[in-house]
Write a structure and sequence with these properties.
The structure holds 2 protein chains of 2 kinds.
Chain A (H helix, E strand, L loop, with lengths): L1 H20 L1 H21 L9 E7 L4 H12 L1 E3 L2 E2 L1 E6 L2 H9 L5 E5 L3 H6 L7 E4 L4 H30 L6 H5 L16 H32 L1 H6 L5 H31 L7 H25 L3 H18 L11 H7 L3 H15 L7 H26 L2
Chain B lengths: L2 E12 L2 E12 L3 E5 L6 H8 L7 E6 L2 E2 L4 H5 L2 E4 L11 H11 L4 H14 L15 H13 L5 E5 L7 H16 L3 E5 L3 H7 L2 E6 L2 E7 H5 L10 H9 L6 H5 L17
Helix pairs in contact in B: 3-4, 4-5
The chains are: A alpha/beta, B alpha/beta.
């Protein structure tokens, strides 16, 4: 047993030394997680990221209310010190639509004539929100914000009107808004999309590093002929494969740490749970993938085959395991597939611990699933590897 | 003298293709034994079985009395392999490579250092020990590769085309070195297509064709096979025994799952 471990460590050390000398691989190793983080962190929109979005307004009303509404939009701030909208003025509804067609603005608001007058005369006034359908994500977000602001503005007016009618002016707000939903989180602060994505990306990078790295590394040694050098030595085959897996795991964890650090520094992600639990979950995630990695390594004779085989696994996994999209929003059949992938459990558990500060008890089912999956695949793959490698 | 390598009815099949077809031969301790044959004849498959890298389909082979299949680790401790592909990591220095393989064979640290000094000095590579192998010429790589195979002082050394693609100077150095190893009592199994090398080095030669042994004898005795030519050389012997027909891949492909030059597709042996 001791010999298996010491042989395993020799192979791990050799692999890491070899890797550290390969500048190109080292460079991509560091750049890949950074690139991915920046991409995801800066590109994916959330409510807070509406900044200086061009908004067209055509105001045909000269009254006090439309002026105020316009002012509300131009002063609206959703992120710190940043105006949400950059207002562009247009004459009428047709011009607004044309502006959207030309993609000059990402949404538009039309205030018809007599808007203020209708309000003053206790009639229902109307505004038109024009949505940019070419750009559904931004378009819908802008429309939502516009509608919400208009609604809030309307509520302000109705509260004032009711207070004039009612005997007790303090009741006005209660009459207009009889129920108020108070939103309370489990941890302080407002989570952003990035906090949702970060645990997923970390888990994915760490686990796929083992999956793809292991197979590619074995295939490379097969191609170069150096695998024969390992196989001809009186070293247990388990040491060879696990030594290689271990070096990949170390690399994966380093990449995971880079991602976490970036998430921390650039996007203000905080780990609310225990770091020890986070690391344990990542190690468990790696464990759950080692068996699959070994199987692919045994089957694929060439690096290219290994890469293609793994791409087949990795690509659907990326979308199905809930890294970017919540599994709950997927169609039922897809949800079932998602729960057959170990990455899903690792991500779920990591998210609970990192975002919600959950403890061991809250993630014990995920831990169990990962353990069982890892044990079964390892149990199958090691004899298969031994058998295939000497045919 | 005792037989250090014993091969009996050894057979290896890949699907419906028989790469090695019930071959038997023995090699005496201290012999240089040539394993010759056209491309795809089964030489490398035989070597891979003898070096525990492939399982035989039938038959058995023993090295120093140990069964290659049942006592693989015992066999591994007693053999060295210089395969056609160089078994060295190009991003590691020569010393790091040798130390790594030494540790895989569980040699003590001092013994590894001693062996590295001994073999690299003889192969004139001492000055290059701390350079990355990737920066070496083919000849330099091969010399370190041979040193690697000798770290454990193996009783049997397998050399699969050790001088292929090397300049005449390095070839000369390696051939002389092989003779020295024989003097030291090592048994050497050599595959090569260089017939001069065979005449210069080999005590006995087995010629394999289509997975079977066509002949197995000393160089002198084999030359008697060529009847119609005075003073025949080994090339004449080789062509007389294996024919002049070129073993092209296209033809072989019709016979079973074989790749270029008649190599089995699914095991990548050379």
């Amino acid at each position: 047993m001791l010999r298996i471990i010491s042989d395993l460590w020799q192979i791990t050390k050799k692999d890491l030394l070899e890797f550290s000398r390969d500048r190109l691989r080292l460079l991509t190793f560091i750049i890949m997680p950074i690139f991915m983080m920046l991409l995801v962190g800066f590109i994916f929109p959330n409510q807070n990221s509406l900044k200086n979005v061009p908004l067209g307004i055509a105001n045909q009303d000269n009254g006090e209310f439309s002026q105020k509404l316009e002012q509300t939009f131009s002063e609206l701030k959703l992120a710190e010190n940043q105006q949400a909208f950059k207002i562009k003025k247009y004459a009428d509804l047709e011009q607004l639509k044309e502006a959207i067609r030309k993609q000059e603005v990402s949404g538009a608001l039309f205030i018809p004539a007599l808007f203020s007058e209708s309000i003053a005369q206790n009639k229902q006034a109307e505004v038109i929100v024009v949505e940019d359908q070419a750009n559904p994500q931004i378009g819908q977000m802008v429309s939502q914000v516009l509608s919400k602001v208009v609604e809030g503005f309307g509520k302000g007016i109705s509260t004032k009107k009711v207070s004039l009618l009612s005997k007790d002016p303090s009741l006005a707000e209660i009459i207009v808004t009889p129920i108020r939903a108070k939103i309370e989180g489990i941890v302080p602060g407002n989570p952003n999309y990035f906090e949702f994505v970060a645990p997923g990306i970390i888990a994915m990078i760490v686990m796929t590093a083992v999956l793809t790295g292991l197979a590619a590394s074995i295939a490379r040694e097969k191609e170069q002929g150096t695998l024969d050098g390992l196989l001809i030595s009186p070293v247990n085959r388990l040491s060879i494969i696990l030594g290689k897996a271990f070096s990949q795991a170390i690399r994966g964890l380093i990449q995971g740490a880079i991602v976490l650090l970036l998430a921390f520094v650039l996007f203000g992600v905080r780990v609310h749970g225990s770091y020890l639990l986070v690391i344990s979950l990542l190690l468990l995630g790696i464990f759950s993938f080692v068996g699959l990695g070994i199987l692919v390594s045994a089957i694929a004779a060439e690096q290219e085959t290994a890469t293609q085989l793994l791409f087949m696994f990795q690509f659907p996994m990326l979308f199905l395991s809930g890294v970017f999209f919540p599994i709950l929003l997927m169609p039922p059949i897809m949800q079932k597939i998602a729960y057959a992938i170990p990455l899903t459990y690792a991500i779920n558990a990591l998210r609970k611990v990192m975002v919600l500060g959950a403890g061991f008890a809250a993630v014990k089912i995920e831990i169990l699933v990962l353990l069982i999956f890892g044990a079964i695949t390892l149990f199958i793959s090691v004899p298969v590897f031994k058998r295939i490698i000497t045919k | 003298m005792e037989n250090i390598v014993e091969v009996q009815s050894l057979t290896k099949k890949f699907a419906d293709f028989t790469a090695v077809d019930s071959i038997s031969f023995n090699i005496k301790k201290g012999e240089i034994f040539g394993l010759l044959g056209p491309n795809g004849a089964g030489k490398s498959t035989t070597i891979r079985i003898l070096t525990t890298l492939l399982r035989p389909t039938a038959g058995w082979a023993r090295i120093a009395g140990f069964d290659v299949q049942k006592e693989a680790d015992k066999v591994r401790e007693r053999i060295g392999l210089v395969a056609e592909k160089i078994i060295l990591y190009s991003h590691l220095t020569a010393r790091e490579n040798l130390e790594f393989f030494g540790r895989l064979f569980h040699l003590p640290k001092e013994k590894i250092a001693e062996q590295i000094a001994k073999w690299t000095e003889r192969l004139k590579m001492t000055d290059w020990l701390d350079h990355e192998v990737g920066t070496f010429s083919t000849g330099m790589k091969q010399r370190i590769n041979i040193a690697r195979a000798l770290l454990t002082e193996p009783e049997v050394l397998f050399l699969d085309e050790p001088t292929l693609g090397l300049d005449p100077q390095t070839t000369h150095l390696i051939r002389n070195f092989i003779k020295e190893l024989k003097v030291q009592g090592k048994t050497i199994i050599l595959t090569t297509h260089d017939m001069l090398e065979v005449e210069e080095l080999c005590d006995r030669v087995a010629i394999i064709d289509h997975g079977k042994i066509a002949a197995c004898d000393t160089v002198e005795n084999l030359k008697k096979v060529v009847a119609n030519k005075p003073n025949p050389n080994m090339e004449d012997v080789f062509l007389a025994l294996t024919g002049k027909e070129i073993r092209d891949a296209a033809k072989k492909n019709n016979q079973g799952r074989r790749g270029h030059f008649g190599r089995p597709v699914n095991n990548r042996v050379r």
